[in-house]
Write a structure and sequence with these properties.
The protein contains nine helices and eleven strands. It is α/β, with parallel strands linked by helices. It has two domains: 86 residues, no CATH class; 124 residues, Rossmann fold (3-Layer(aba) Sandwich), CATH 3.40.50. Helix 7 packs parallel to helix 8. The longest helix is centred in the first third of the chain and has 13 residues. It is elongated.
């Protein structure tokens, strides 16, 4: 099967030299981007119903850029001035870098995991008696909560935004050779938008264990997986499939 078209269930990269652009040019592909989900902030009124006082937390655990945005959004809406002494524990360098949108990086205590929040276990140990706030969406996998509980930290979750299914009705009669997913929410969106979806010859590329499990749970087949040792990125996994398919 020759691959001609790919739909990536994420926003289009702003970088003109993105790996997708290189893939598109190298193999003469048509690659489109369309978010299958979007984020909606929880109102300050509804956040207050969670009965969590932002003043009670010395540290904030940030697992995504959305968490960063909505933590500072809700702080503004609730007229809470984030103390300069607040320590930030970021899941990755990308999250930590994004934090600079709101704080002066060199003047804040920011701790960064290489790949996950688990990488910061020794740092958490140093501040074990302090309090931690975990801003999240309504969709939360068990990995981070389980880790924080195993560390016996004094932490609380606060839900600040919701992951919402996007309207994809305009794609009903559009066909792509590969559909690319990065989260279980993307699969959920596919099935809610198209409950009669039949995979047939469509290939599904899934990134991450939880996404792969969601594809299988929806009774669909995963054709391309990432990350692996050979293909740590999705574009590398897609390219490997294209090359092997030509043989």
């Amino acid at each position: 099967m020759k691959i001609n078209s790919i739909l990536v269930s994420q926003p289009e990269p702003l970088n003109e030299n993105s790996p997708y652009k290189r893939l598109e040019n190298k193999y003469n592909l048509k690659i489109h981007f369309r978010p299958f989900i979007h984020i909606e902030g929880v109102s300050a009124k509804k956040v207050r119903l969670q009965k969590i006082d932002l003043n009670n937390f010395q540290n904030v655990i940030l697992t995504s850029r959305n968490a960063v945005d909505h933590y500072f959004r809700i702080s503004d809406e609730m007229r809470f001035k984030v103390p300069s002494s607040t320590k930030y524990f970021c899941q990755s360098e990308a999250v930590a870098f994004y934090l600079q949108k709101y704080v002066v990086y060199r003047k804040r205590k920011i701790y960064v995991g290489k790949k996950s929040i688990n990488d910061l276990n020794e740092t958490f140990e140093k501040f074990k008696n302090e309090t931690y706030l975990l801003p999240t969406s309504d969709k939360l996998t068990s990995n981070v909560p389980n880790f924080l509980s195993e560390m016996e930290l004094n932490w609380k979750r606060i839900q600040l935004y919701n992951t919402v299914v996007s309207d994809l009705s305009d794609l009903r009669d559009v066909y792509y050779d590969i559909l690319v997913f990065f989260s279980p929410s993307g699969i959920d969106s596919l099935m809610k938008n198209f409950p009669d979806f039949v995979q047939n010859k469509t290939l599904i590329a899934a990134y991450g264990k939880s996404t792969i499990e969601a594809v299988k749970k929806a009774n669909l087949k995963v054709n391309i997986q990432a990350p692996t040792k050979e293909t740590p990125s999705m574009t590398m996994a897609i390219e490997k499939y294209i090359v092997n398919n030509k043989k």
